[in-house]
Amino acid sequence: MTDIVDQQTRSRMMAGIGGKNTKPELALRRELHARGFRFRLHSKKVHGRPDLVLPKHRAVVFVHGCFWHRHEGCRYTSTPSTRPEFWRAKFEANVARDSVVRTTLLKGGWRVATVWECALRKPEQVETSALLLADWLVSSSAELEIGSTVDEAQGE
């Protein structure tokens, strides 16, 4: 299958996709801040530059896009039909890097939460995710993953 736009246009479009201050991230930040949590953003001092760093709780939060970080079983995790080998390699590298970052942070004494973009699509989902995250932050659990439904939230 061929692309509907030329290569230069596609390249410009893809380059315009930001990795920081995304809508899901901003929504979650607003909810956490309203609940009294204070955090650092994209700290270069913490491995992997997490979206949120909460030093008081020795915790970091990653807000992952389902497409780019390959949220398993999510309906937003699609693969473009053009250049599938390129995309497969790119996605595998993203997932591998995420795994290394997570492991390094845990070994370094940080607690790690991953909130998937699909869990932040509607205002009520953002609120639920923020509540789950707030509960986790005051707990002693090392990890948390929040997906598109409350049932998918798993604390370990």
UniProtKB/TrEMBL annotation:
Pfam families: Vsr
Keywords of the record: DNA damage, DNA repair, Endonuclease, Hydrolase, Nuclease
Keyword Nuclease: yes
EC code: 3.1.-.-
Listed CDD domains: Vsr
SUPFAM superfamilies registered for this protein in UniProt: Restriction endonuclease-like
Record GO biological process: mismatch repair
Keyword Cell wall biogenesis/degradation: no
A GO term for molecular function: hydrolase activity
Family membership noted in the UniProt record: Belongs to the vsr family.
Role played: May nick specific sequences that contain T:G mispairs resulting from m5C-deamination.
NCBIfam families given in the database record: vsr
Protein name: Very short patch repair endonuclease
